[in-house]
Design goal:
Elements: H1 7-14, E1 24-30, E2 35-42, E3 47-54, E4 59-69, E5 73-76, E6 79-80, E7 87-94, E8 99-109, E9 114-130, H2 135-162, E10 178-183, E11 189-195, E12 198-205, E13 211-217, E14 220-228, E15 234-240, E16 243-251, E17 257-263, E18 266-274, E19 280-286, E20 289-297, E21 303-309, E22 312-320, E23 326-329, E24 345-351, E25 356-357, H3 358-363, H4 366-386, E26 393-406, E27 416-427
Antiparallel strand pairs: 1-2, 1-9, 2-3, 3-4, 4-5, 5-7, 6-7, 7-8, 8-9, 10-11, 11-12, 12-13, 13-14, 14-15, 15-16, 16-17, 17-18, 18-19, 19-20, 20-21, 21-22, 22-23, 24-27, 25-27, 26-27
Length: about 425
């Protein structure tokens, strides 16, 4: 193999931004009156090295994995706590505010996934902070690393070609164990190593302006190689009978980037798709679309975790807020906060007395519809009471929320939900 680059190595290269980050740390963080902490960020290994020191000199050392790197924040993975089997914690290192925010969760069973209910939140101030990472440069490195690998592959090919004799004669069908170049009747140009009249590896220039560098079978990309379209789109990875198939990465001219598996020239299986506006989807794909379980992350730090069908969110999932807390939801809008500053606002939160079945809630039928309608009616009554001085109000926000789940109801086998209504009104 003249290209020994495997997909796993691509990932290591793309997400190994050590060259772009100086030593980064959060030191002298006041955890409590008795404990202080230092957090050393090792971007090369994607871990946080933690040292906790008590006033009596006792020292504890931990190494926690990094979940994500943002412009001003480093977020750890959820870590199981020694306080209980279902207790987890996660912390956020914020360079802008010089704080470490630790969240504690209780793991609960959800629908098709684990849900984490926020139990407590603690924020610690750090007097010595250095943030040396650069998210933009790390992301820009993805393309430059691919370019380097393509150049290396081409250089390797030239080295192999220099060791092989030139093909003799004009009939390429007779060429074997030699290097040669010819142009087919269809306008395709081939330059590479030939055996038994067929190119094994080399370069192909297409009539429309596209270019392929890699391995061939029956004059089609097959094995490992790089294809660059005339419009600037580029694929690096495995091929099968002329189509992208297996592990690979693709970059589109519009700024989209995908790392994962392909089948028959389409995104298929597990992968991560980056969007030009900062959004990201990590999960399952079918026939080129988001389909199955996945996580859709937004630039503001929020995310939706759940099921997708043909590219669209489907049913109940988990919405993750900026601080890492989460709640069952059906829409990403549940994670967004509105700004009602300067208005005479009243908050309203009501809880339904009766639980409803998931299927009825999703279809808004039967008992679930009656409970939902009653909540909306009670919301209007409460708004009138709160704005009784004028008797007039404007609804700024009103939404039905899932507050709790019961997967083992007293009767019936279907999961039941406790729902409520949350909103804001402005007295006018």
């Amino acid at each position: 193999m003249y290209i020994k680059l495997a997909f796993s190595i691509i990932f290591l290269l793309l997400f190994n931004p050590n060259a772009f980050a100086e030593s980064s740390y959060f030191k002298k963080c006041v955890i409590s009156n008795a404990v202080s902490g230092d957090y050393i960020i090792n971007i090369d290994r994607k871990v946080i090295e933690v040292t906790l020191e008590a006033v009596d000199g006792t020292i504890q050392n931990f190494t926690d994995k990094i979940k994500s790197i943002e412009k001003d924040r480093i977020i750890s993975e959820k870590i199981q706590s020694q306080k209980g089997e279902n207790i987890y914690f996660q912390y956020f290192l914020n360079a802008e505010t010089k704080t470490v925010t630790k969240l504690q969760f209780k793991k609960q069973s959800g629908i098709d996934m684990d849900l984490f209910k926020l139990n407590s939140k603690r924020e610690s101030y750090c007097s010595d902070v250095k943030s040396g990472w650069d998210k933009v440069k790390i992301e820009e490195a993805e393309i430059s690393e691919e370019q380097k690998q393509i150049l290396k592959a081409q250089e390797k090919l030239k080295e192999e070609q220099n060791k092989i004799v030139e093909c003799q004669g004009a009939d390429y069908k007779q060429w074997t164990k030699c290097k040669g170049k010819f142009k087919s009747e269809t306008g395709h140009e081939y330059d590479g190593i030939f055996s038994k009249g067929k190119i094994l590896k080399g370069i192909s220039l297409y009539p429309g302006g596209a270019k392929y560098v890699g391995e061939f079978k029956n004059y089609m990309p097959h094995g490992y190689g790089t294809f660059i379209w005339k419009n600037g789109d580029k694929y690096v990875g495995q091929w099968k009978q002329g189509k992208s198939h297996g592990d690979g990465s693709k970059v589109w001219k519009d700024g989209r980037k995908y790392f994962g598996t392909f089948e028959n020239d389409k995104l298929q299986g597990a992968g991560t798709l980056f969007y030009p506006d900062g959004k990201k989807y990590t999960g399952e794909f079918v026939n080129g679309k988001r389909h199955g379980k996945g996580t859709f992350s937004y630039p503001d730090g929020t995310a939706f975790i759940g099921n997708f069908i043909a590219g669209q969110q489907d049913g109940l999932g988990e919405c993750v807020n900026r601080d890492g807390s989460s709640l069952p939801c059906q829409s990403k809008s549940d994670t967004q906060a509105e700004n009602f500053s300067g208005k005479d606002t009243k908050n309203i939160s009501l809880v339904a007395k009766k639980w409803v079945r998931v299927s009825q809630f999703e279809s808004n039928t039967k008992k679930a519809k009656k409970v939902t309608d009653k909540l909306k009616e009670d919301f209007e009554i409460e708004a009138s009471k709160l704005c009784s001085e004028t008797g007039k109000y404007k609804v700024l926000k009103k939404r039905i929320e899932i507050l709790d789940l019961d997967e083992t109801p007293a009767y019936g086998l279907e999961t039941k939900l406790q729902i409520g209504i949350d909103g804001v009104v402005e007295c006018i």
